[in-house]
Amino acid sequence: MAQRKGQPEGRRGKAAALLLSIRPQHAYRIFEGSKHFELRKFLPTARFERVFLYETGGAGIVGWFDASEVIRRPINELWKRVGTAATTRDAFFSYFAHSSQGFAIEVREPHRFRHPVNATRLNGNRLKLLPPQSFSVLEPGQPLYMLLEAERRVTLRGDLPRIELRRIKRPQRKAYEKLVLRHISRHYQGIDETFARANLKIHDLGFDPAGFFTKKKEVLAVYDPMSKCIGFTTLTYKSGGCVKTGPTLLLDRYRGRGYGQATRRAIEERVREAGARKIYCTCPESAVDTVRYLLASGMRVEAHLECHYAATHDELVFGKLVVSDENSVPPVATLKLLKGEIVDPVAFQRQGLVGDIKVMFGKTWSPVSSRFVEALLSQAIEQRATRHHEKPKRLVCLRTGRSCVGAIVLLPKRGGAVKGLLLRATSHEASLRKLLQAALAEVIRLNGRKLYFLHPAADASAVVFMKSNGFRAEGLLRAPYVPGQDVVVMSRFV
After folding, report:
1. Angle, to 10 degrees, between the axis of helix 288-296 and the axis of helix 259-273?
2. φ and ψ at 70, to 5 degrees?
3. Burial label, 460 (beta-carbon count in 10 A; 0-12, 13-18, 19+)
């Protein structure tokens, strides 16, 4: 509840409510869950605990949120406190350009009315709706206050059930494995008991020893309001504040009763508290009910991958920002024109190769540690003779003198797709073409059907290069690993 010292209370000891004028795009972000602070240059001194939102453009009063806290600070301090949980940096400082201090109302439990309360509806109640210039205070007992509270109670009666997510318990693991196998194997090739067990193994380890960007996994049980386990979900935490959700599976008798949407809401709350910027997931194009459920939860399609994890159907990639993204785009590195030749990674002096890969990774994505590169090389070189390794990475390299000036790291996925990362310190196209051809040959040796790259969209020369070599764009992922850095998916069948 928002309260300041010395503020007068509303009638009968109840706090007043605030009616705020807000633009449609900001209201949308509040209700979808990516805006957690509403910024204002001025606020009343009256104590308030609820905020109703009047959407400009004639829509009327579209919903409300509870005010968890009201923060008043100098502008620079306010930015440090709320950051992109409110808006982008550019928008923040533009809005407060001529202010020495500002306010931020923390958003809690936002709800949209089923039908906006507008002038047409109010005419029958003999109430006149005056759009506030910025805000107006609604005192308890006033007709509009009472009408909005009644509308709020009606909305809450049809609200989603409250559920809870908890770490999976040992006795629940067999049920998780059985549920995953039953529902996931029907859509994907090569899914057996080892898929769910691999998730549990990484969950237990607390880190992923084989992923490119994966940091850890959480396997969670879903509980209803009576503390009964009704299903499971898996969260995969990526570098840069991105979280992959799924598989999320509910017991059959709990489907179609709002528990799926309630689980999505609980997932977003959990990852937001963990500092995540974005959630994403993948889904077979043919799974119509799942597609509808994801779209209804505010997820948006970012990529359409042809025959990706299975030869029988396409895959959709869904994404949703849970905080505001930065406008700034990380700069693209300047590269030299260095001619190189394909060599086996073992031909390099190990310490030098670690340093070269580390530099190229930082130029392409973000800085990484020598330990990260050492682990990558260990998996790609020492373990390449291990045919039954769960995720057998491969590495092809381009050498100039004693230095590695280009590399493609390969990671086979289930169903025949192979993920690739292009790292380079040269713009010499003929040499890079040799590197690409070597990678395609390696994909064939891995029995892969398709090679796809994730690459920063701002690196236009690399995207054009891939396109000129038979790759095509299958989607644009919005800032999955680095704030402000969108990623293009480039794919080619082999």
Report:
1. 50
2. -115, 125
3. exposed
Percent of the chain with pLDDT over 90: 55
The partner residues of 18 in beta bridges, in order of sequence, read 51, 137
Report all structural domains of the chain as residue ranges with CATH numbers, in order of start. 11-157 (2.30.130.30), 164-321 (3.40.630.30), 341-493 (3.40.630.30)
Contact assessment for residue 326 and residue 485, using Cβ atoms and an 8 Å cutoff: no
User: Which run of H or E residues covers position 426?
Assistant: none
User: How wide is the angle at C-alpha 406 spanned by C-alphas 475 and 337, nearest 5°?
Assistant: 100
Q: Exposed, middle or buried by CB within 10 Å (0-12, 13-18, 19+), for 450?
A: buried
- Enumerate residue ranges in the chain where pLDDT < 50: 1-12, 388
Q: Please, are residues 346 and 381 in contact by the beta-carbon 8 Å criterion?
A: yes
Q: Which residues contact 121 (CB under 8 A, 6 or more apart)?
A: 60, 115
* Residue 472, pLDDT score: 96
Pairwise CA distance, residues 357 & 403, whole Å: 10
Matching residue, tokens 């049920």: 175
CB pairs under 8 A, 24+ apart, for 143-147?
A: 144/19, 145/16, 145/17, 147/117, 147/122
H, E, C per residue of 12-75 = HHCCEEEEEEECHHHHHHHHHCCCCEEEECCCCCCCEEEEEEEECCCCEEEEEEEEEEEEEEEH
* Residue 494 burial by Cβ neighbours in a 10 Å radius (0-12, 13-18, 19+): middle
**Helix-then-strand count for the chain, H and E:** 13, 21
Residue among 403, 376, 401 at smallest CA distance from 391: 376
